[in-house]
Amino acid sequence: MHPYYPAPWRGIEGNFETLPKAFDSKHQKPNNSARILIADDEPRARASLKEILRFTGYETTLAENGSEAIELLNSRNFDLILLDLNMPDLHGHKVMEHIDNFSLNCDIIVISGETTFDHATMALRNGAQDFLRKPYSPDELLRSVSNALERRQLKAENHSIQLRLEESESLHKFIVNNSPDMIYLLDQEGRFAFINERVKSLLGYSQGEVIGEHFSKFIHTDDMERAQFTFNERRAGERATRSTELKLCSKRNGGTRFFESRAVPIELSSIGIYTTNGDKTKSFIGTYGVARDITERKQAEELIKYQLYHDLLTNLPNRSLFRDRLNMAMAQSKRSGKKLAVMYLDMDRFKIINDSLGHFVGDELLKLVGQRLRSELREADTLARVGGDEFNLLVPEINDIQDARNLAEKILRLTCEPFIIKNEEIFISFSIGISIYPSDGDTKDMLIKNADIAMYKVKNAGKNGYAFYSEKMKTHFSQSLDIENGLRKAISTNELCLYYQPQFDINSGSIKGVEALVRWQHPEKGTIQPSEFISVAEESGLIIPLGEWVLRKACMDIKRWMKEESITLSLSVNISMQQLEMDQFVSKALKIIKRHELPKDSLELEITEHAIMQDMDKAIDALTRFSHKGIRIAIDDFGTGYSSLGYLQHLPINTLKIDRSFVQSIKTSEDNSIIDAIITMAKGLGLNLIAEGVENQTQIEHLSKAGCGLAQGFFFSHPVPENELLEFIKDLRNVDNNEKPESSIAGDSDSPSI
Ligand code: C2E
Ligand code: MG
Ligand code: MG
């Protein structure tokens, strides 16, 4: 081994302390925390190296020979080894071999007295960064160390950049494939050049099944046109990112899913860089896009939209949708010059079905009615449920009102067939009002309102039928004022008169009582029915004097019959809610009864269910006052109100008068569920029952079988003037006297009611 001498700083001018500075300025230390190992068997050489490096700020570790160097290399990390070659125990080349064999990350500078070219090349080939020949100048040493460390640092930085790049690339790949969205690339032809793995979980296709295929293969036909437009727009160089909602076909069970696709065209610039900014000088090479699955949002939106526009019980359109469609149909009619019809369908007696048979049956019935009607209508017709038991039907483009007539008749035919629910047959009927565009109104509100007016007309005329709206119905309303003035006069000039309709005991055939029904003998118009003027009287307050007159006259008549004809009958008088609301009504009525010396319980006041429902609390209050005075109360037209049957328990009532619409629905002896329910319920509540509007023998038979004992109706007698009633009773008495000794006529001991 060559002696290594002298002190390295020898020959350098100036103060020893200045040395590091001079070195510092020349040799920027890339890393003074570098871990440097010095391996030299020559103690002075080691010391000298250590000193030079220490002045420059490097800390070093010393190894006295090759074996110690290897030991240290194995136990710690070194950045650099300054390695002597010629060492007695282990040659420097062996140390280098070890470093190589064990891939130790340590750079090597050989500092050797072996000056031959071969040694130098071998050292460099074995991985040394530099080869310094002893003796070396400190400057030379430091430059070499500095270069080696700088290179090392650069290499480390490069390595870390590389690592970061690789990491970023795999992260990128991870992000693309694990994106919750589908990320895709279409080529110029619209074929998939790339799609991430997400396609598998969203649409069920593998990437391989999609790549190379044209996008149209995956677009649902509903949205094909929109998709073509969107992707072709890209080709035309549209710049902005375009967001489109598309329905895509899933591989699973032919299902579909909704996506929001944001696509942007990719272009290749002249220098071969991909861009997305749509410069016309660049060539379009495809479309880059991200498609987000919005199926759930879409479904929620659709559900909300559906709920906004549909009735969820029947799944029919609701009022809003009906009005929209009507608007559209009117615009269409305006263009085509064709008519359209609006029908207002109201189910008769629905409330009673609902209350007597339960809400489940009521709901089922509405569903079945909706289904039956819908299945018989044209595609273009809109049937909507607009209220509890109310339906609106829009019939666009009719040639003639005869078409509407035919359809209304068809609906009545369809709905009179029984509906089967829980093995029970349920019979219903409808009242239908019809208005025609443009003759009955040129706005949707007017058409609906007029159809509604026509429907009410049907209800008043006995339900189960249809009517076209007519101007007369409107004039009827405008005539109210004339009626009011005329009626005011009629009360004072005695143009009113009373008709009486007898009430019979079905089983014995005897007359039990009479109902007083007012008529207006108009000097010009002849007899006017109460349906023409009672509502006007109620609205104008004239019902108070009118009602008083009716009560007084009826009591007077009855009293006379008792006196002159020996006939005792119970008397039913209709009253309106307005009368009940009047404070003195109870006392006035009682006074009238007293004056005519009538037994209190011979008078029954009838009030309609509908009137009671208008203000239940008031009705309970007034009726209670009557009943405390011993006057009997009957609920008239029972079953037509829209109330719950529970209210009956709160009212002081004696009798239920079953509305004639129920009686008229008795056509066969099986058709009985509702009326039977009413009868059973009334009996349960201990109420008397009387059936109104009895017109034939079948009805009598059924009522009798079901347990309803009393009836009135055209079958027995129409309402008749007083003299005719007396004749009728006398005739009956004669018949009874001749044929039936147990006749029910007054004076007969077996019939206490007359
Ligand atoms: P209401 O009290 O239910 O009277 C029964 C109505 O049914 C009567 O009509 C009667 O003519 C009719 N009717 C009776 N039997 C049959 C039948 O077998 N078939 C058919 N289709 N109809 C039958 P009217 O006399 O026209 O009375 C109509 C309504 O006017 C009455 O219905 C009652 O609510 C009201 N009304 C009559 N008179 C008065 C009154 O003095 N005061 C008040 N407030 N209302 C009255
Ligand atoms: Mg009545
Ligand atoms: Mg009635």
TrEMBL record:
Cofactor(s) annotated in UniProt = Mg(2+)
Enzyme class, spelled out: hydrolase
* Record PROSITE patterns: EAL (PS50883), GGDEF (PS50887), PAC (PS50113), PAS (PS50112), RESPONSE_REGULATORY (PS50110)
UniProt keyword Phosphoprotein, yes or no: yes
Q: Which residues carry this modification: 4-aspartylphosphate?
A: 84
Protein's UniProt keywords contain Phosphoprotein: yes
For this protein, the Enzyme Commission number is 3.1.4.52
Q: Name one Pfam family in it.
A: Response_reg
Q: Which reaction does it catalyse?
A: 3',3'-c-di-GMP + H2O = 5'-phosphoguanylyl(3'->5')guanosine + H(+)
Q: Where is the PAS domain?
A: 168-238
Q: Which residues form the Response regulatory domain?
A: 35-149
Tell me which residues make up the EAL domain: 480-733
Biological processes per GO annotation = cellular response to nitric oxide; phosphorelay signal transduction system; regulation of DNA-templated transcription
Q: Which domain of life is it from?
A: Bacteria
Which segments constitute the PAC domain?
Answer: 242-306
Q: Which SUPFAM superfamilies match?
A: CheY-like (SSF52172), EAL domain-like (SSF141868), Nucleotide cyclase (SSF55073), PYP-like sensor domain (PAS domain) (SSF55785)
Database matches in InterPro entries: Biofilm_reg_signaling (IPR052155), CheY-like_superfamily (IPR011006), EAL_dom (IPR001633), EAL_sf (IPR035919), GGDEF_dom (IPR000160), Nucleotide_cyclase (IPR029787), PAS (IPR000014), PAS-assoc_C (IPR000700)
Residues covered by the GGDEF domain:
338-471
Q: What keywords sit in the KW lines?
A: c-di-GMP, Phosphoprotein
Q: Which GO terms describe its molecular function?
A: cyclic-guanylate-specific phosphodiesterase activity
Q: Which PANTHER family match?
A: BIOFILM ARCHITECTURE MAINTENANCE PROTEIN MBAA, DIGUANYLATE CYCLASE DGCP
Name used for this protein in its record: cyclic-guanylate-specific phosphodiesterase
Q: What is the lineage of its organism?
A: Bacteria, Pseudomonadati, Pseudomonadota, Gammaproteobacteria, Chromatiales
